[in-house]
Design goal:
The structure is a homodimer of 345-residue chains. By secondary structure, chain A is an alpha/beta fold. Chain A has three domains: 8-51, Orthogonal Bundle (434 Repressor (Amino-terminal Domain)), CATH 1.10.260; 65-163 and 294-321, 3-Layer(aba) Sandwich (Rossmann fold); 166-293, 3-Layer(aba) Sandwich (Rossmann fold), CATH 3.40.50. The first copy, chain A, is built from 13 helices and twelve strands. The first copy, chain A, binds a DNA duplex (16 and 16 nucleotides) through residues 7-9, 17-21, 23-24, 27, 30-33, 36, 51-52, 54-61.
DNA sequence: CTGTTAGCGCATTCAA
DNA sequence: TTGAATGCGCTAACAG
């Protein structure tokens, strides 16, 4: 029982003019007499006329919609990214269609198809962890649909990118640990094959290098190894580890628990730094020192990139690395002077 | 430079038939010879034919899209709700268009207009805190667009609802406090005019009543009063408050901090219960006892209601109250026997 | 300035 | 079973 909406022809009939004239008046074309324009606009308003986007899309070949793929909603990081995106797109009159991949490539591929079928004007995505094939992303590119990827790099795909400067963030974090007196530092690294994992690990290594601390492969424990917890425990006991730099705040929390078990006090016996500055970081006891990534800005910047590409076809691809910021709280000892030094490279 | 997509006529030409036939074949109509159907389907696949939704919408008057309005992305509660919604809608081939209100009625109104303009097939919404006018929601109803509201009730709007059983949740929480030995219990209540605030407060009162504890108006402090923190402090000091039931986990955390300041140990000196079971609840020290609301199920149920209304116009409105569950953690003393008793009414 | 004509891609009615 | 014709609501090219 949907109510019939008034169309351009309805108002044309009532005013004894042609639909064309009405269309022109409504679209602000100059080629309409002031008098008629006024009449038309008034009647349109009175009748509650609203253009039918499907009809428009059909002739204009644009849908004013943007497709967004994210791994999941429930990480605060993605929520903030989403907010950033929405703040830009809603402002520009674009609809946001959202699909989640749940880190499953199958769902990601399906989402891409859905978006292509829907003729979205552009696509924003954070690819999922286990991406081994990139045909679906290549298809987007081939179709001529603008694509901007966020957070995770993807060498194989020639798109625009907005990511965090993971290397810098990790470097500064580990550097801070060292300068505050830690020497032996454990790194809990992230999922394999993820650019973010790789770059944060590299930042860790580079910081060690800067301070001429010999790197020991045993000090890196992967989060997706089965017995991660056990390995961390062993490592903490075997070496006199003084600091831990974790890939995420959640992993940092695991270290909190291990420390508790081992009767290590944080930060006196063990300094811990996380990554992402999720809300939990400031609710933990002691509050977690972590690396802020500006997810809101990430989303906003990506949306801007995308809208540029949509509105000005041919705009060259862009890549943006967002600055990170070390947020010093209570899980680290406090004797480092400068917390966000530039990387000397 | 968008690549042209193949249309129904493209494949008609190539096969020397009319678009009608192709349309029929593609839509599984019986009135096509098996041979032609096979030919058509094969060529369609080969050419990568994908129907144009705008064209379909134009003739069918449905868009296969659902509009969703939520206050914000960044509360875990809404993220989970979103996941629940998405799990249902994506399964049924519906697109989800999302707008956030940021708790501003102005944005909510705009979102409704946007959705109506977009001819969405249905709308899901959690209304914002300060809703004084309901014309925009009434307009949705008047247009014949199915509407399901979530989490917050809205007497003025005659739609379907899926909400938590806030009363029951609050009642059980406070009842638990009492049965574990607390007698003087403070309630930090939520934003004015919100059904959830009202019902949780009523649950609080009812539990006191059940145990014949005299109710003192000073024991209810509103979260949107300016000097909330100060008032809580005064109250804790003036009376020998033994338990606090807070409208949300975040408010409960504020009480943690106040308790710390006042040198009150949780739960020995003061038991605290929150509401919502946000992730922070389990990361706090001590871990927070709280009321779980099943936001995922809330979203899923609302989506199901909506799809029912869309697919079977005339379906009567439904209202569902989701069970809550008291999650006992470390912020409450442990001597209550039955944590989720039925309300005796 | 305004009307006429045509077409976007598809589904559907009516004939054949 | 298939084709021809029509229209969904709108824009745009072309005449006048």
């Amino acid at each position: 029982m949907r109510k019939k909406r008034v169309s351009i022809t309805d108002i044309a009939k009532e005013l004894q003019v042609t639909p064309s004239t009405v269309s022109r008046a409504l679209n602000g074309s100059k080629k309409v007499s002031e008098k008629k324009r006024k009449e038309i606009l008034e009647l349109a308003k009175k009748l509650g006329y609203r253009p039918n986007p499907s009809a428009k899309n059909l002739v204009n070949r644009e849908t004013n919609t943007i497709g967004l793929i994210i791994p999941e909603f429930t990480h605060h990081f993605y929520s903030r990214m989403l907010s950033g995106i929405e703040s830009i797109t809603s402002n520009q009159g674009y609809q946001l269609i959202i699909c989640t991949s749940n880190e499953k490539q199958k769902k990601e591929i399906k989402a891409c198809e859905t978006f292509l079928d829907a003729r979205v004007d552009g696509i924003l995505a954070t690819v999922c962890k286990k991406n081994e094939k990139f045909g679906h992303l290549q298809e987007i590119l081939d179709s001529g649909t603008p694509l901007v990827l966020m957070d995770r790099l993807c060498e194989e795909v020639d798109a625009s990118y907005v990511v965090s400067n993971d290397f810098e963030g990790a470097f500064n974090a580990v550097n801070y640990l060292i300068e505050s007196g830690c020497e032996l530092i454990l790194h809990i690294s992230g999922p394999k094959n993820l650019s973010t994992s790789f770059n944060r690990m590299m930042g860790y290594k580079e910081a060690l290098k800067k301070h001429e601390i010999e790197f020991n492969p045993e000090w890196i424990i992967q989060n997706d190894e089965e017995d991660m917890t056990q390995r961390i425990k062993s490592c903490l006991q075997k070496y006199a580890i003084q600091g831990v730099f974790a890939y995420s705040d959640y992993l940092a929390y695991e270290v909190y628990q291990i420390a508790k078990e081992l009767n290590l006090s944080v930060p006196d016996d063990l300094s811990i730094i996380g990554f992402a500055d999720e809300p939990i970081a400031s609710y933990l006891s002691p509050q977690l020192t972590t690396v802020n990534q500006q997810p809101y800005e990430m989303g906003a910047a990506a949306a801007r990139f995308l809208l540029n590409q949509i509105n000005q076809p041919g705009t060259p691809l862009e890549t943006k690395g967002l600055k990170t910021k070390l947020i010093v709280r209570e899980s680290t000892k406090k004797n480092a002077p400068d917390i966000n030094p530039p990387i000397n490279s």
